[in-house]
Amino acid sequence: MLFGRLKALCLSAAWSRGRPSRAAGSARRCARACSADARGRLSCWSCQRALLPAHVFCPSCGALQPPDAARDHFETMDCDRSFNVDIHKLHQKFRDLQRSFHPDYYSQKSQKERDLSEKRSSLVNKAYKTLLTPLSRGLYMLKLNGIELEEGTGSVLGTQFLTEIMEMNEKLAETHTEVEIRDIGEFVEAKLKELTEDVSKAFVKGDLQEAKVLLAKMQYFSNLADKVKEKIIPS
C-alpha cells in the first residue's frame, strides 16, 4: 500500500510539472500582448481603441495622446528636413501647436492629459527654438547625421580666422561709443549672413564636413553678435 501511494504521488508530481500552470499561461498571454505592442500596434491610453501613429488626439474619445519619441524637430514642426526652413510657416505652425497643447487649455482635464499637454508643449518650444535660427538648426542637422562639434574645433579653422576673431573681440572690448559698436555689429551680421548662405550650399551638396567647419565659424561670430547686443547703449 505504501509503495502504491508513493508511486501515485510521484506520477501526480510528474504530471503537475508537465502541465502548464495558470500563471505560466497568463505569462505567455502577456508576452504575446507585449510582442504585439512591439510590432507597432497603438491604442488610446484612455479608451483602448486602436490608433495610428499620426493620431495626436484619439478619434474615439478625443483624449490627448503621448508624443512619439521617434519624431525629430522637423517632424514635430511639420517641416522638411532642410536647412532652408520657411520661417513664416514655422511661426504659424508654432502658434497652431501652442494653441492645441498649451496647459491652460487642459486645466479642467485629467491629470494624465495635463501632464501630456505640458510635455507636448515643451517639445514644441524646444523644436521651434532649435529650428528658428540658422546656427542651432545647422548644428541639429549635423547631430541627426551623427556629427557634433567637439571642444577645440577652433584648431581646424586656421590661425588667420582665429586671429581675426581675437582682434574683433579686443576692438569691441575697447570700443565705448554707440556708433563704433553698431559698425562692428553690422560687420558681424554681414559675416553671419554670408556664412548662412555658405552653410546652405554645403547642405545642398551633402558636404557635411564643410557644413561643420562653417557652423564652427558661425559660432564664433554668433558669440560676437551677442557681445555687441550687450554693449549697445540703450537709446
Word description of this protein:
The chain is an all-alpha fold. Among the domains are: 44-132, Orthogonal Bundle (Helix Hairpins); 159-232, HscB, C-terminal domain (Monooxygenase), CATH 1.20.1280.20. Helices cover 66% and strands 2% of the residues. The chain has 9 helices and 2 strands. The protein has helices spanning 2-18, 22-38, 73-76, 87-101, 111-132, 134-144, 159-174, 178-205, 208-231, and strands spanning 42-43, 50-51. It has a two-stranded antiparallel ribbon. InterPro entries: DnaJ_domain (IPR001623), HscB (IPR004640), HscB_C_sf (IPR036386), HscB_oligo_C (IPR009073), J_dom_sf (IPR036869). Belongs to the HscB family. Pfam families: HSCB_C (PF07743). This is Iron-sulfur cluster co-chaperone protein HscB. GO terms for molecular function: ATPase activator activity; metal ion binding; protein-folding chaperone binding.
